[in-house]
Every structure is written in C-alpha cells, then in structure tokens.
Amino acid sequence: MNKKPAVAQRMMHIQPFYVMDLLARARDLEAQGRSIVHMEIGEPDFITPTPIIEAGHRALSAGHTHYTPALGLPALRQKIADSYRLNYGVVVDPSRVLVTPGASGALQLVMSVLINPGDAVLMADPGYPCNRHFVRLVEGEPISVPVGSETGYQLTADLVDAAWTSQTRAVLVASPSNPTGTLLSAKALREIYQVVRARGGVLVVDEIYQGLIYDGDGCSALSIADDIFVINSFSKYYGMTGWRLGWVVAPPEYVEPMDRLAQNIFLAASTLSQHAALEAFSDEVADILEERRQEYRRRRDYLLPALQSLGFDIPVVPGGAFYLYAGSGRLTPDSFKFAQVLLDEAGVAVTPGRDFGSYRPEQHIRFAYTTCLANLEEGVGRIRCFLGH
Ligand SMILES: Cc1ncc(COP(=O)(O)O)c(C=O)c1O
Fold first, then answer.
1. Can you spell out the DSSP letters for 286-305?
2. What is the C-alpha separation between 206 and 202, in angstroms, rounded?
3. Which fold has domain 50-282?
4. How far apart (Å, rounded) are the C-alpha atoms in residues 249 and 205?
C-alpha cells in the first residue's frame, strides 16, 4: 500500500529553499560539462583560515573528542566576550555567552525560551527565510513586515510600533541583513529597542554579518543594552560555515533556561570546532580576515554599478554582508522564471526573491558576491549577452 508518511502538522509551514532546486540544476548542468557562474551561494568562497584549521588538527591529535559543557568551552566564551571589548568597547560578562551549533542553533534556543504558542515575532520581509521557521517550530506566529528601499530594507521604530499587537512578544532584526546587505544605524537600532521595551517585548539582533562591513564601523546592539539577545556565528566572517559554530549573548536571566535547553537538544556544540575557533581571534587570523573583507568590498564596488548598468535597480548601497538585492522589475515580471532561464541559457546562477519572503519577491533577485572578481565579470558579461545589450 502506498501510504503517505504521518508528518506532524507543523511541517506544513516549513518551506524548502527554492534556490536548492536551482543549485541542483546548476550542478546537473556542470556535470554535463557546462560552465556555471555561481552568484547564488550564501557562504564565503574562501576556506577557513589556515591557523584555525591547524588548531583543529592539533585539537584532534590531543584527543579533544569528548563533549564540552553545554554552554561551550569557558576559554572560548571568554574570547568571544573579549572580542566585544576589543571591537566595540563593550564589556560583556562571559557568563552571558552561549556557544551554539551555528547561529541556527542560537536562533532555535532563543525562540524556544522566549516564545509561547501564539506569540508573534515581528521580522522584516525580505529577510532570512529560516527565521519564520524557527518561530513556527515553537508554535509562534512569524509576522513579516514589508520593508523597501525607503527604510533601507530594514524595520524602523515606527514600523515596529505600527505592527505591534497584544500578541507580539519579540522583534528580530539582522544588521547587516540577508538578503539585502543593508545595515541598521546605531540610532535606528536604539529607537527600535526603545519601542520594543516600551511595549514590554524583547529585541533579538542577528549580527552574523557584523564583521563584513564596508562603509563605516559596525556596531553591536550590546552597546545599547544588556537585555537584548545578540546572535552571531563563526560561519560568515570567520569562513567556518561547515564547522557549525555560533553563539548568542543572552540577558543574564535567560542563561540558565537556555543552558538547560541546550543540554537537552544539543548537549553541546562540536568540540573540535570550539577548539579550532579558539584560534579565530589571533592577530594572524585577523590579518587574513581583513584582507578578505577588502576583497569583498572590491567585489561589491565592481558588481553594484555593473548590475545597475544592466538595468537592475539597487537604490540603497548595501554596507555589508556579501549580497546585493536587486530590483529586476524593469527586466522581467517574474524573477523566479528569469533565474531559471538565466541559468539554463546563460549559465549564471542567482537566487530569486521568492526565497526571502512575500513582499514583491517576483521583482527581486539576490546576487551573492561569494566568487572571485573574474567570475563576477564573466557573470555580468553573460547576463549582458542574455539581455541582448
Ligand atoms: C542572517 C542569517 N542568520 C543566520 C544564518 C545561519 O548561519 P549559521 O547557522 O551557519 O551560523 C544565516 C545563514 O545564511 C544568515 O544569513
């Protein structure tokens, strides 16, 4: 008998990444010998800096193969706390730092300890697609607030205030954002925080792309207040996506329940990765990461005007991350179809807006500059031919 599996109802709300189908198609084409320029991938093309990899080798040789405490290696929590003092002049007590399996693990912990069934969480649309699923998993209501270029594709205090209802419990923002690469200024973040506090809610700030800022200095929400959840990760800036390591700085009163939950659902983040990450804060690694940041900036500075000259609209210069969220409305009424045909006919893979929400997704495409300048130039050339320019 061909029976459907009995999957829990909550799974109805968990959507796949559409770009995965596109990536699979790109890999098929590559297997057939076609050359594909990848501008869809949301992770660094650089491998993890060598000193971190070597620290990982040393940790294995030394037999560091057991569980760590659920909250992470004390030495790593200390180094993470110190990094806030060094980078932003903010003193963070290491007891508030929880090491997690990626920012993904941090988001899961935070939503689990904050959200009761039916509680609403406000977030920007377009935004990182998994956020709404972390809320759904704990039976909360993700509320997508449409944002456009007028607000730099970010929530504002006014938007938060207007969207607030008696159900609202938390607001989740990301600065810089995926997919738009745009930032919240310290002032804008403070204003959002003030509204959230006045309404009795909690602010969660995803700072996973904070190291990758190209215009001006970054800022951490921790410099505003201690009762904000701040999420970060070794994935993007440190080039450690596959090591699955992140962290969250939590308000002190949430540390104990999060520790309890982490013990139950993860036991701990990967021991090997934690030992390797101890090296991530060395001067040698800082130099490597700074060179990479400069390289990303060069790529952005090339790709932004190049795409504009092809007819894409990018009204706000993205100050960070490695994404450009381009308006494609002048070129196509359907960015999803456009991305499929662009891949098949021109051999360029991009991510259609559909993956990032429901606010005008058909008019947007995300370009990731996670490939070298020569490839970006090749990609732009192919798109130019495809468009018949
Ligand atoms: C905004 C944002 N937050 C969180 C994550 C999850 O990152 P990780 O679990 O690899 O740390 C990503 C990954 O793309 C992201 O773009």
1. HHHHHHHHHHHHHHHHHHHH
2. 13
3. Aspartate Aminotransferase; domain 2 (3.40.640)
4. 10
**pLDDT at residue 1, as a whole number:** 58
pLDDT digits (tens, 9 = 90+) for 355-377: 999 999 999 999 999 999 999 99
145 φψ region: left (φ > 0), alpha (ψ -120 to 50), beta (else): beta
Q: Which single residue is written with the structure tokens 């045909």?
A: 341
Over 90: is that where the pLDDT of 4 sits?
A: no
User: How close is the Cα of 389 to the center of ligand 1, in Å?
Assistant: 36
Cis, bond preceding 176 (omega within 30 deg of 0): yes
Tens digits of per-residue pLDDT, 207-244? 999 999 999 888 999 999 999 999 999 999 999 999 99
The helix (H) or strand (E) run that includes residue 195 is: helix 186-198
By most ligand atoms within 8 Å of CB, the mutation choice from 128, 231, 322, 323 for ligand 1 is 128
Residue 233 Cα: closest atom of ligand 1: 11
Ligand 1 pocket test target in 41, 98, 104 with most atoms within 8 Å of CB: 104
Q: How far is CA 345 from CA 216, 339, 386, in A?
A: 39, 10, 8
Task: Compute the Cα dihedral for 303, 305, 310, 312 and give only its sign.
Answer: positive
Domain ranges of the chain: 9-47+285-387, 50-282
Q: Which CATH class is domain 9-47+285-387?
A: alpha beta
| Token reading at 123 | 């977030």
Q: Which residues line ligand 1 (CB under 6 A)?
A: 42, 102-104, 128, 174, 178, 206, 208, 233, 235, 241, 246
